[in-house]
Amino acid sequence: xxxxxxxxxxLSLGASxxxxxxxxxxxxxxxxxxxxxxxxxxxxxxxxPFSFDSLLGQARALxxxxxxxxxxxxxxxxxxxxxxxxxxxxxxxxxxxxxxATGTPFPISFFHLNKxxxxxxxxxxxxSGASGQMTAREIVYSPDYFDYTGSGLQxxxxxxxxxxxxxxxxxxxxxxxxxxxxxxxxxxxxGQDDQYGVSARGIAINTALPAPEEFPRFTRFWLAEKxxxxxxxxxxxxxxxTGAYKFDCARNNGVVMEVHCDxxxxxxxxxxxxxxxTSMYWYGENQRERAADWRPEIxxxxxxxxxxGKGERIWRPLINPPHLQTNAFADSGxxxxxxxxxxxxxxxxxxxxxxxxxxxxxWVEPKSDWGPGAVELVEIPTNDEVDDNIVAYWRPQKxxxxxxxxSFDYRLYWQNxxxxxxxxxxxVVATRIGRAGIPGATQWxxxxxxxxxxxxxxxxxxxxxxxxxxxxxxxxxxxAVNAYVTKLVGTDRWRALFDVPVDGKPPTDLRCYLRLGxxxxxxxxxxxxxA
Length: 531
Fold this sequence. Notes:
Helices cover 6% and strands 41% of the residues. By secondary structure, the protein is mainly beta. β5 and β6 (134-140) form a beta hairpin.
């Protein structure tokens, strides 16, 4: 279904950059000769012309031929490079691409093959001459780029393995990184608070279906830096699809990516996911019964935010469901959607290792009209924090058939909040659930639950205490009762409370927003409750 083990690998990557063993430091771009080595640095292949049109040609030609999977070199050995061992294989920082070069602020280092990313990728560096014509040189793999101390491996006996991906560092001499591409079509950035969490993918194929999910992968990358922008071209290959991608990545109040892709279908996937996001949700304040761990909450993101084509803002808190489920939010011409982390206080998690309060959100902003379709949310049961059990993506309404071509342009914001959120609209910042009725009563209604929703910001922030704000509530199981809105003493937060009958035939679907007369004061809260 999903590559759960991928998350365990990602948790280890923060410690896998620093090198050991003294070697001279050389610029990886100085003294290049076609096919020749850089002493103490990277080796490059011969130069050849490159353009996005040539990448399109590669993707189109591949789609006309049967898919051929790339076998993993030294498969038995690579399978043994697990979570613990991969941390002992360290890329030597002095060999990073663009290390010490002027005008390239983000040195690039490379990932070793391992149990979780077994297939090699080919990586090129790009250079633009006076004419503007780009030339590409392959970065030739060598085990000399890695320090294997403590790993127990004999790297030269393994042959030409290749890289499993790459990362961009925060500065010339900074071991930390802010962007990484590794595994299938996965990539991620550290967002505003320099903490990894949610990932994105190039594409999702047949997610949450009875048949196995297909994981197309980026097989080739071309890298270029200009000023503060890192540009990445990528070739996608899979049994059902090929694709040509361009990513323009910039540090800007977090990270902003301009994404363009052209897709060529050699098959007819049953379910196509555009701009997919992958995250982890174990439990939050809305599911205290799931809290097997001592920490109050554990999640990378706590909700799906949607700005639909009609202009409505929607907040759907994530849940850890009793069984795998997919929810579709039908729309036409979506303005954006994303997985967001709204609980941002350390007290929400009490975790000084994983720092869930610093995990980024990711917002997808279409740059054109995507037409009819649906934002789909996949939630998978989990009992641990190492599982990527949340997926969100855009699914076009029109089915895809063999021979089709599709193009998409969108922008990814790796930030704490949704960009451009209306200043006059309140957000939902907490969802809590308990027994219905009056607190302290000797009896309480059976087969009912109380919901407490906290709203913050927008026009509510400046309002004094008043009692004419109305919660507009709908529930699939019947009418809400005991509904009212109150301002929390000593804060700018407002709380809506209401009781809803639950008939034991889950789930109960709920909606709520706040209104003052004819004025909408908040986004729409949507929830699924399982009794």
